[in-house]
């Protein structure tokens, strides 16, 4: 909850022209989260730990892929129509 509020406040103060680089930076962070979730899943011993690790990997992967898709769509907006 605190992270969501902090993120909303920080992103609200960033000029619109810098949103694309900000998205790329957040995709980098999501990649780190994905690697951490995979490491945690690799060290899981019990079924509960494995399930939690799998859910973490699935959510982190979805978040990273979604971020890249949004960034790609934003970059398409900057291309000229002649391409």
TrEMBL record:
Q: Which InterPro entries match?
A: NADP_transhyd_a_C
* Single GO BP term: NADPH regeneration
The residue ranges crossing the membrane are 28-44, 51-70
Task: Give any Gene Ontology cellular component.
Answer: plasma membrane
Q: Report the membrane topology from the UniProt record.
A: Multi-pass membrane protein
Keywords assigned: Cell inner membrane, Cell membrane, Membrane, NAD, NADP, Translocase, Transmembrane, Transmembrane helix
Its EC number is: 7.1.1.1
* Gene Ontology MF terms: NADP binding; proton-translocating NAD(P)+ transhydrogenase activity
Q: Where is the NAD(P) transhydrogenase alpha subunit C-terminal domain?
A: 1-79
Swiss-Prot/TrEMBL catalytic activity: NAD(+) + NADPH + H(+)(in) = NADH + NADP(+) + H(+)(out)
Q: Which domain of life is it from?
A: Bacteria
- Where in the cell does this protein reside? Cell inner membrane
The record describes the protein's role as: The transhydrogenation between NADH and NADP is coupled to respiration and ATP hydrolysis and functions as a proton pump across the membrane.
The protein depicted here goes by the name proton-translocating NAD(P)(+) transhydrogenase
Q: Name the species this protein comes from.
A: Abyssibacter profundi
